[in-house]
Design goal:
This protein is of the alpha/beta class. It has a single domain, classed as DsrEFH-like (Hypothetical Protein Ychn, Chain: A). It has a 5-stranded parallel sheet with strand order 4-3-2-1-5, sandwiched between helices. α1 packs parallel to α2. The longest helix has 14 residues.
Length: 130
């Protein structure tokens, strides 16, 4: 079965983000596939490269990145949610004349169409959030 995930909460303010990560890992240990994870609302903080996680805590953003690279999973950040929260990739920082960008690879910024497409092309879309 082909899954897509929608994550609406930040990595450290609510259990939903970590639950989504654990769900994704469990899926990929079986015969299921995970094509795309779409982060919206405060979930876009997952793709911010400026967060520093204490050594004794789980580095949730790094684990998402590792999962994506190992299993060819797209990690999409909602563009409107990112702009409101000051999370910019290089293109958006140029477009809005900002002097920095802070999106971690392999996260990419895109629009809600990516979530709609994931819902249409997947067998299941599972949302994690508050």
């Amino acid at each position: 079965m082909n899954f897509a995930l929608h994550v609406t909460c930040s990595p450290y303010s609510h259990q939903g983000n970590l639950s989504a990560l654990n769900f994704a890992k469990a899926l990929l240990k079986t015969e299921h596939q995970l094509g795309r994870v779409f982060f919206s609302s405060d979930g876009v903080h997952t793709g911010c490269s400026l967060a520093v996680v204490p050594q004794d805590e789980i580095d949730i953003p790094a684990q998402w990145s590792e999962l994506a690279l190992q299993h060819n999973v797209e990690l999409i950040l909602c563009v409107s949610a990112c702009l409101k929260r000051g999370i910019l990739d290089k293109d958006e920082s140029i477009r809005y004349e900002k002097n920095a960008h802070n999106v971690s690879k392999p996260f990419v910024i895109s629009g809600l169409g990516q979530l709609a497409e994931a819902a249409i092309t997947s067998d299941r879309l599972v949302t994690f959030g508050v």
